Each structure stands twice: as structure tokens, then as C-alpha cells.
TrEMBL record:
It is a multi-pass membrane protein. It is found in: Membrane. CDD domains: MFS_SLC45_SUC (cd17313). One of its GO terms (molecular function) is sucrose:proton symporter activity. This is Membrane-associated transporter protein. Keywords: Membrane, Transmembrane, Transmembrane helix, Transport. One of its GO terms (cellular component) is membrane.
Length: 546
């Protein structure tokens, strides 16, 4: 919400019309106006309509829809272009390594972005375009290369290169985009709306995943689009790109941002208007020390030499990697503990999800992916993989349902209870699946995956919002000036999201070796063990704001 001089003058009555009888009422209005200014020089966001929060959550719907499509088709695509097995780990490691290194840099950059469109939306748009490009390359790379290269060997080599590039770009952007989306929500919403927004994010994440898995499960080869386009992969790309473009457009037009460069101008306007309507009662309050800290902050922000927005030189200095690492290492201990608990959660969740369909095919259905393609063992394995996809669909639906249930449980058990229950149920569920691999019990316990998914997408970011709210409240009480806080919401959300990439790196290096030695059963046992360790960490190490 951008403030103008006219909006302030329209909100305050002319001094000539103020009488002694309504002096108290005028003072209360003016105090409320002053108290709406935070220590960053920005105005406290107004309450957002539910429709706006739903529009904001559409980005998560589109992102998860595309994620589900990738989960269903990336392995068949890689196999179809002839990717050697020794390159599989390379495909899954490049993206998280890039994300882990670059995510904090982009988070810090978005905190200090002065684009007239806002701080977060330019990055969200850019990452969305990279997602579409990556998806186009890995789903259509073989067809594209076939149109330009005729020689078989060269065509195969370039098809592998283009497909790998597409997978890396898509994973990189899809993992990356979550941080700016969360920071965007925190910037434009009040504390109560942040809670609602995170729940809507989890709800639409589950719905998008469910619809994506269902889209992947359908046989598009026998439809009109299947006959019109070159392959089933192109049909899937058409639907995924359409859904994502619509969702991204709706998200970017959901809630306007206040550009960073305008925030200092708003505080100047507020100062001018406040000074032009000084009543004796307010002046006395200021002389007595009441509202002194707030007025000091406003005046400091209004002075060009002490602007709350960093100068260009300071911005460049802060953006150096050395300074960025120093900022991350100087994070308070409760932020670091939250990041570690988030790492445990994603390690447990991904170790189960990345190999779940293979676990269903090999352990539950007793099939083999290495048997001849016309053999009973291979067909049994393929059936198990298809059933595993339905299990992932159950996970997505339960994630949406639990995100709604979280809103009901939160007043009773708090964030600590939600965090603990999410890890505990997932740890117990995966443990039971590993010990008793049965088709029906496994599908039923897939609903507990959704509990974990919803927990990971909401509770840690909710805690980040609580930490920032507490810090801003303490700074307001202490009368500190704006700009003294070295980190913004963007870099904190980026640090949290980095744990997803770090979990992928750890699993890519370690879990693949375990699977090759002990088989797919080790994945669910590992997931259960890590989740239960994380459960203890959540209970005893993570700090919760009262």
C-alpha cells in the first residue's frame, strides 16, 4: 500500500474544525497513525481479503502441479533418451548444489531490490520463466533435437544433454521460487494474514500435487491431443505449462508490493503531515517522552543522510559473498536450530518420496526393474510403480486436508504441537511401512506423508514470521532506528529453503549408495529414523514464541 500526501490530508481533519470536545478523539487517531509505522519505516499492512490470499497461493498450486508432472515423467524421459546410469546422480546433484550456493545470494538481493514493481515479484517472474524453459527442454528435448540433427549418434548425445539441462533448470527454479514467494507473503500481510496465507499455501500445494499426479496417470496417447501432438510428453507439457502460466499470472497480480525506494518517501510524508497537525496534547506527550522513539525513527528515516534504505554503495558491499556468509553465520541460535530441524524434516521426507514408487514395485509387489520388459517380473514392477503413483496422490490430498485441519488445531496445541505431531506421525508411518510392506496398509499410511508435507510447508515459515514479529516489537520498545537489523525476511526464508537443497545433496551422495547395497527397503527405514530424530530436535531445541 503506497501512501500519498493526499491520503493523509484526507484522513486528518483541518485544524480549524477541531474543537476542544473532540480533542481526545483526534489525539487517538494521530497516535494510531504514528503507531502504524514500524521500525523499517513501512506501514503495517492492512487486512487482506480471503480472495487475495487465495490468489497469492495459486503460485504454489502451479509449482506443485509441475513438480508432480516431473516426479511422474522425468525417469521415463531420461530412460527414453538413453541416459547412462552413472549420470543419474549427476542430474540430481547439480541443481541442489547450485541452489544451496545461490539461494542466500538471491534472498539477500531481493531484500534490497529497488525495482518499481516490488522486491519479490521480479525474482518470482524470472524463476517462473526458468521453470517453463526447463520443463520445455526435458519434456520436448528429444523431439526438438530430432528436428535439427539427423545423425543417430549425435542426436542421442544432444538429446541427453538437452534433457539433463532441462531437468537441472526446472529443479533449480522450482526449489528456488519458494523463498521469494514466502517473503512476498510476509512483506504484504499482517501477522494474522501470514498465518492464513501459509495455510492456504499448504492447501493449494496439496491440490496442485494431486491434480498433477492424476494428469500424469491418465493415458493421453488415445486422446485428440495425443494424436495431434508428437508424443504424450508434449500433451503433458501443454497442460502443465498452461496451468503454471495461469497460476503465476494470478499470483503476480494478487497483492501489490510497496517498492523499497518509496518507503523512505512515505515516512517523509507521514512526518510532514504529523508536524502540520501538532496539537498541544501531542506536543506535551512527545516532550514527556511518550512516542519519542517512534518520532525519532520517523525523523531519522526522513533525513537523506540516515535513510532507512541502504545507499547504493552499502547495498553493493552487503551483496558480496563474504558479507553474506557473515550475515548467515551471525544469525541468532534459534534461527540456526530451526534450519537444522528443517533439514532433518526434508531429509526424512525426500528419502521416502524419491524412492517410494520403486519401493512399491520392488518390495511391496516383488517385481524387478532389471528383468526383460516382456517378463512377468517387469510387468509386476510396473504395476507397483503405478500403484505407488496413486499413493503419492493420496499424500497430496491428505496434505491439503491437513493444512485446513492445522487452522483448527493451532489454538489448542500451538506451533510446537503441530511441528512435533508432523514429524512423529511421519516417522511412525514410514516405520510401519518398512516393517510390514503390504499394499493396502501402505496406501493407507500414505496419508501420513501429507501430514509431514503440510507441516514442512507451513510451520517453519510460521516460526520465521513469529521471530521477525518479536524482533520488530522489541526494537520498537527500545526505540532503535530502522535499518539496524542486518537481515531481511528474504534471506531468512532463503536460508530455510536452502535446507531442502542441502537435504538433496546429502541424500544424493549417501542414500544412492545405501539403496544399491541394501535395496529400496532401506529408504523408508532411513526416513523413519531421521524423522524420529528430528522429532526430538523439534521438541527440545527449536524455540517457540509465546
Amino acid at each position: 500500500m503506497t501512501l500519498t500526501k493526499e491520503s493523509f490530508h484526507g484522513a486528518l481533519p483541518p485544524a480549524s474544525e477541531v474543537t476542544k470536545a473532540d480533542m481526545d478523539s483526534t489525539r487517538e487517531k494521530e497516535e494510531a497513525l504514528l503507531q502504524s509505522v514500524t521500525t523499517s519505516g513501512a506501514v503495517v499492512p492492512r487486512k487482506r481479503a480471503v480472495g487475495r490470499l487465495v490468489m497469492h497461493s495459486m503460485a504454489m498450486f502451479g509449482r506443485e502441479f509441475c513438480y508432480a508432472v516431473e516426479a511422474a515423467f522425468v525417469t521415463p524421459v531420461l530412460l527414453s533418451v538413453g541416459l547412462p546410469k552413472n549420470l543419474y546422480s549427476l542430474v540430481w546433484l547439480i541443481s541442489p548444489i547450485l541452489g544451496f550456493v545461490l539461494q542466500p545470494v538471491v534472498g539477500s538481493a531481493s531484500d534490497h531490490c529497488t525495482c518499481s514493481w516490488g522486491r519479490r515479484r521480479p525474482y518470482i517472474l524470472g524463476l517462473g520463466i526458468i521453470m517453463l524453459l526447463g520443463m520445455a527442454l526435458y519434456l520436448n528435448g528429444d523431439v526438438m533435437i530430432s528436428a535439427f540433427i539427423g545423425e543417430r549418434d549425435n542426436r542421442r548425445t544432444w538429446a541427453i544433454v538437452i534433457t539433463m539441462l532441462g531437468v537441472v533448470l526446472f529443479d533449480f527454479a522450482a526449489d528456488f521460487i519458494d523463498g521469494p514467494i514466502k517473503a512476498y507473503l510476509f512483506d504484504v500481510c499482517s501477522h494474522q494474514d501470514k498465518e492464513k496465507g501459509l495455510h492456504y499455501h499448504a492447501l493449494f500445494t496439496g491440490l496442485g500435487g494431486a491434480l498433477g499426479y492424476l494428469t500424469g496417470a491418465m493415458d493421453w496417447g488415445q486422446t485428440v491431443l495425443g494424436y495431434s501432438l508428437a508424443s504424450e510428453f508434449q500433451v503433458i507439457f501443454f497442460f502443465a505449462a498452461l496451468v503454471f502460466l495461469v497460476c503465476l499470472t494470478v499470483h503476480l497480480h494478487s497483492i501489490p508490493e510497496v517498492p523499497l525506494r518509496y518507503k523512505n518517501e512515505e515516512t517523509k510524508i507521514l512526518l510532514e503531515v504529523t508536524e502540520s497537525y501538532k496539537y498541544s496534547s501531542i506536543e506535551e506527550e512527545i516532550k514527556n517522552g511518550y512516542l519519542k522513539s517512534t518520532c525519532t525513527e520517523i525523523k531519522a528515516a526522513a533525513k537523506p543522510g540516515k535513510c532507512a534504505v541502504m545507499s547504493h554503495t552499502e547495498d553493493q558491499r552487503r551483496m558480496t559473498l563474504k558479507s553474506l556468509l557473515k550475515t548467515l553465520l551471525s544469525m541468532p541460535s534459534h534461527y540456526r536450530y530451526l534450519c537444522v530441524s528443517h533439514l532433518f524434516g526434508w531429509m526424512a521426507f525426500l528419502s521416502n518420496m524419491l524412492f517410494f514408487t520403486d519401493f512399491m514395485g520392488q518390495v511391496v509387489y516383488q517385481g524387478s526393474p532389471y528383468a526383460p520388459h516382456n517378463s512377468t517380473l517387469y510387468l509386476t514392477y510396473k504395476t507397483g510403480v503405478e500403484v505407488g503413483c496413486w499413493g503419492l496422490c493420496i499424500n497430496a490430498i491428505s496434505s491439503s486436508a491437513y493444512s485446513y485441519l492445522q487452522k483448527i488445531l493451532l489454538p489448542y496445541i500451538g506451533l510446537k504441537g503441530l511441528y512435533f505431531i508432523g514429524y512423529l506421525l511421519f516417522g511412525l508411518g514410514t516405520g510401519l511401512i518398512g516393517l510390514f510392506p503390504n499394499v493396502y496398509s501402505t496406501l493407507a499410511l500414505c496419508s501420513l506423508f501429507g501430514v509431514m508435507s503440510s507441516t514442512l510447508y507451513t510451520v517453519p515459515f510460521h516460526l520465521i514470521a513469529e521471530y521477525h514479529r518479536e524482533e520488530e516489537s522489541l526494537k520498537l520498545q527500545d526505540g532503535e532506528q530502522a535499518g539496524e537489523h542486518g537481515r531481511g525476511k528474504g534471506i531468512d526464508c532463503a536460508a530455510l529453503t536452502c535446507m531442502v537443497q542441502l537435504a538433496q545433496i546429502i541424500l544424493g551422495v549417501g542414500l544412492g549408495l545405501l539403496v544399491s547395497v541394501a535395496g529400496s527397503a532401506v529408504t523408508v527405514i532411513s526416513a523413519s529414523t531421521v524423522a524420529l530424530i528430528g522429532c526430538c530436535f523439534v521438541a527440545f531445541c527449536v524455540r517457540y514464541v509465546e
